[in-house]
Fold this protein.
Amino acid sequence: MNRVALSDESTGIQATLVIDLNITLIYDASLYKTLIQDLSQNKNFEFIQSLFNSMDIKLQPLSKNIGLQITKNDSVSILELNLEEITNLFKSYGVLLFRGFETNTNIFKQFSNLLSIDFLDYTGGAFTRRVIDGDKTVLSVNDHQFAIKLHGEMYYQKRKPLMLWFFCANPASQGGETTICDGKYFFETLSGSTKNLFSRNKLKFSVHQSKDQWQAKYRIDDLGKLQEICIDNDISLKINVDKSIDLEYICSAIIPSKCGNYQVFINSLLPTKQLNPEIINFDDDSEIPNDVLTELDEIAERITTDISWKTGDILMIDNTRVMHGRRAFSDDKRDIYIRLCSPAFEL
Ligand SMILES: O=C(O)CCC(=O)C(=O)O
Ligand SMILES: [Fe+2]
């Protein structure tokens, strides 16, 4: 047994963790700070202690900017983890990567079912996704091989998933990392003038769809139903004589955090500019200046964390404050699944 003394000078709280010798704890300043904060709020103490005492688990920051990796070295099931404490870690970190657990698509479903509700089938989504094993709530990631810039999932409509799950059935042989980035840190890194620009101007998505296109996208064929969906999503709808439609959705690129204490840069601006530049402008129809887009790309490159997938990895993302994307890849082996949902707990 090892004993590690933890103390928090500001609160005077002291604690001693008893650690089995077979446990590797990566001590990093930010993790240490979080542990101390958690201890001082009496939050994760029991979980951390029980992890340390009973399981061969390693907790490790995903990068200096974001996330926590929870690595298991033997064959205890991921379904045995303490859900309340996973919830607490998710709330503090915004991203959790579970690695080394014995998983498959079914276990991925079971585990995500334990922590989430309201799984979406991606109706109205921008990309093409395959349904996995006949379950419409387990979908492939976007089926192309190109890089996708950072975005919040479905931030082009009001009804968006608050939480995302990813499962790596098979990694790409090269490239194909999923990227993640803290929207709070992104906001803080913006120049003053860009913060100002996005506070004063909202984004406007303007999309034209033929009758066939909207019927396929929303999986409906009547205009009444389409009207309901648009009202529900704050999307303005114009129906043309040939039954093609024009949609407009206006939203801010910067939103307040769920707790209301900080600002978050999270939106679908970058991939829309990358893939369909003509459909996005500011709401007064002015263009988003190129130097601003360059600034966003530079910040993204600087503060993005890559998830280099290993088979069986499960990734849990807070879609209200963490953006994601992916690096390009060129083989057809990559098989990553996504579930879009809400947390089964208060965020
Ligand atoms: O392929 C990935 O890792 C993520 C792609 C993506 O953003 C998505 O499918 O929503
Ligand atoms: Fe995405």
Q: What stands out?
A: The radius of gyration is 22 Å. The longest strand covers residues 335-343.
